[in-house]
């Protein structure tokens, strides 16, 4: 019996699906339109489609046994991994309501005070107004009791006041509650007792406590992170329960940190999924690029709604705990991804000043661009590509026909408002979209002290390859790699990911006690081992790290810490890594200056359950000297017939010189004049400036 693993990535416009045969390594890909009203519908339709079932409702009934109905009896589904945007979209759309907050007596204005920093682009603080708080002050309640920074109890927990608070929330129907007490990172005992009171007095409430979500100091970030977890928990629980019922088998969900977790566990920590889909894309692209000999790359995931960019160094995407979603800071470990509203569905519009703008508003999957013929009324980036002939008159190999006349009429109407030719208008839409993407890439490279010209780029996602020639010119990139089936790289990435859980403990000291640090690492590794046992892993891998800073600094630098016993050699190695990393990040360090001591801040452990990754095989088919399948009128600098190549016809060593277009099932690569696209032995297209 064939055994397959399936990855399903739900995007704003399409749901991408990849199935890997565990015996042969054969990879099957497909796409289906997303269903924003109920993402589970698109999920089930995608699984049914990749398995060859008859429709979205034929798959669930038989998957319990691993063999869906409507599928040949020789197929068994061994695992399903899901990348979801449910939590992300709730936060981006600011759908956070009826949320309550419990904190320490005297600290009810934590959220109001927030931080003194003002976002870039807002000028000075006189002209910037703080956005609404995630919980308005009238829904904040306090409870007496106090821990100090060592975890010692200063004042006992006031249980009578806690009961009053729980009843207050119950009477007002507030059912999602976050609890964050001062210094609970050092001792969460009072938070645990508050949760017990809420469970007894208000059993209908969904509760998140900071001791579970983030045992790390800085009370504002810890409070908001806990509240975000509480806010998305009801939505994620409903979604996961719906999927579990319809799928009929256990499945896993991608996390923001580059790991996966079973759906049964992820409902208890839904905040870990806020960058679920984009994280899978960065990991899949990293594996593809390193296999092709490019261990350090920029990844660009272009979808229908947005574009996500990340940096991969030596095969590993960069991680951060200073990220956020929308206006909410989230101090959980996540792949360092910058998202910009520049996708195929991004809407072109005219500002009150009469200038052309593109995004961040998107037509999404419903109604979609004008060319979808589903009632869309605004010109999008996809419409501009269709008008210029750079995209075929259909998507998904003909499954979704495009209305080129509707795109043309929309572009012409917009051009009339701007006083430009339709070609100039459509080209301008694409130029603005390319600059929006390039600005996101600069944020994650130049602003991090990296030279963008040192990194080739991996472009994927349905719209990712469409603007790569312009990005090479704008940024000076050495090359762009376009993988096979670029629209399914994120879904493929889901099948390359280990199970991973992160644990942290704040331990601020300038004189590290090795015995105390060993005890903390032991406790964190024990927590990680318990979680991996619940996931069914007997092979445990633990990755330690530590956050350090020079005494007096406000923020820390994270460095990996060696495994094994903690001794003086271990301490010296971590300190050496800190000095080197600080110098690399900021251009200076105080390694030999006794006036600047080093302060240890946080100790961390990642528990990893390793999986067997699918192998990326060499491409045995196609020809090195293919002819075009046909020609089509395409506008680059002028209207002219351009050769249209089928990607499946290209073999290793094949070179396509622009102007041309390379088409495949889920994506299109326009090759501009002066550029070449060369097929490598793994089926990747490498786009460069033509040096001839």
TrEMBL record:
One of its GO terms (cellular component) is cytosol. Transmembrane segments: none annotated. InterPro entries: ACX-like_C, ATPase_NBD, Hydant_A_N, Hydantoinase_A, Oxoprolinase-like. Residues 222-502 form the Hydantoinase A/oxoprolinase domain. GO terms for biological process: glutathione metabolic process. It comes from the Bacteria. GO terms for molecular function: 5-oxoprolinase (ATP-hydrolyzing) activity. Residues 518-685 form the Acetophenone carboxylase-like C-terminal domain. This is Methylhydantoinase. It comes from Planobispora takensis.
């Amino acid at each position: 019996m064939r055994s397959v693993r399936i990855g399903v990535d739900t995007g704003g416009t399409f749901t991408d699906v990849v199935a890997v045969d565990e015996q042969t390594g054969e990879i099957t890909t497909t796409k289906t339109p997303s269903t924003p009203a109920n993402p589970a519908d698109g999920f089930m339709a995608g699984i049914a489609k990749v398995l060859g079932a008859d429709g979205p409702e034929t798959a669930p009934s038989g998957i319990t046994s691993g063999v869906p109905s409507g599928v040949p009896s020789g197929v068994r589904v061994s695992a399903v991994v899901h990348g979801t945007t449910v939590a992300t979209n709730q936060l981006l759309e600011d759908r956070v309501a009826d949320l309550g907050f419990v904190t320490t007596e005297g600290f009810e204005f934590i959220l109001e005070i927030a931080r003194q920093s003002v976002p870039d682009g807002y000028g000075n603080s006189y002209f910037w107004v703080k956005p609404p708080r995630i919980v308005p002050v009238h829904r904040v309640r306090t409870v007496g009791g106090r821990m100090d920074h060592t975890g010692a109890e200063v004042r006992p927990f006031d249980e009578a006041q806690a009961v009053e608070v729980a009843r207050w929330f119950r009477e007002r129907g507030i059912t999602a509650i976050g609890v964050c007490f001062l210094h609970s990172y050092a001792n969460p005992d009072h938070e645990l007792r508050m949760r017990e009171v809420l469970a007894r007095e208000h059993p209908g409430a969904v509760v998140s406590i900071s001791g579970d979500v983030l045992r790390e100091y800085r009370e504002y970030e810890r409070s908001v992170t806990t509240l975000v977890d509480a806010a998305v928990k009801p939505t994620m629980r409903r979604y996961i329960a719906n999927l579990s019922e319809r799928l009929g088998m256990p499945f896993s969900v991608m996390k923001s940190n580059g790991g996966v977790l079973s759906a049964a566990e992820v409902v208890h920590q839904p905040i870990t999924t806020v960058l679920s889909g984009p994280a899978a894309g960065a990991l899949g692209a990293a594996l593809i690029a390193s296999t092709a000999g490019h261990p350090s790359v920029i990844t660009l995931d272009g979808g229908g709604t947005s574009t996500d960019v990340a940096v991969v160094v030596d095969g590993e995407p960069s991680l951060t705990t200073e990220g956020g979603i929308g206006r909410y800071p989230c101090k959980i470990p996540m792949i360092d991804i910058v998202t910009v509203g520049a996708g195929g569905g991004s809407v072109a519009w005219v500002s009150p000043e009469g200038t052309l703008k593109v995004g961040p508003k998107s037509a999404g999957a419903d109604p979609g661009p004008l060319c979808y013929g589903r009632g869309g009324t605004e010109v999008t980036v996809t419409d501009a590509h269709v008008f210029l002939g750079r995209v075929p008159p259909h998507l998904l190999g003909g499954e979704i026909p495009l209305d080129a006349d509707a795109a043309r009429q929309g572009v012409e109407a917009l051009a009339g408002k701007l006083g430009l030719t339709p070609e100039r208008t459509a080209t301008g839409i694409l130029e603005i979209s390319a600059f929006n993407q390039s600005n996101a890439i600069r944020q994650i490279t130049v602003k991090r002290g990296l030279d963008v010209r040192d990194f080739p780029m991996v472009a994927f996602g349905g719209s990712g390859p469409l603007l790569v020639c312009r990005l090479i010119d704008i940024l000076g990139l050495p090359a762009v790699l376009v993988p096979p089936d670029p629209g399914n790289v994120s879904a493929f990435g889901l099948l390359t990911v280990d199970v991973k859980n992160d644990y942290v403990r704040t331990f601020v000291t300038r004189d590290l006690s090795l015995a105390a640090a060993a005890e903390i690492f032991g406790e964190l590794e024990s927590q990680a081992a318990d979680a991996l046992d619940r996931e069914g892993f007997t092979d445990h891998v633990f990755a330690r790290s530590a956050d350090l800073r020079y005494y007096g600094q406000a923020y820390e630098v994270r460095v990996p810490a060696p495994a094994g016993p903690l001794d003086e050699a271990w301490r010296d190695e971590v300190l050496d890594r800190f000095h080197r990393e600080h110098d690399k990040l900021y251009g200076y360090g105080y390694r030999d200056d006794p006036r600047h001591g080093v302060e240890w801040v946080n100790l961390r452990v990642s528990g990893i359950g390793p999986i067997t990754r699918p192998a990326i095989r060499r491409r045995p088919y196609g020809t090195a000297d293919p002819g075009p399948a046909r020609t089509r009128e395409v506008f680059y600098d002028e209207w002219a017939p351009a050769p249209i190549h089928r990607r499946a016809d290209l073999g290793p060593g094949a070179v396509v010189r622009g102007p041309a277009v390379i088409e495949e099932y889920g994506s299109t690569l326009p090759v501009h004049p002066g550029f070449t696209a060369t097929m490598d032995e793994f089926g990747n297209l490498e786009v460069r400036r033509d040096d001839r």
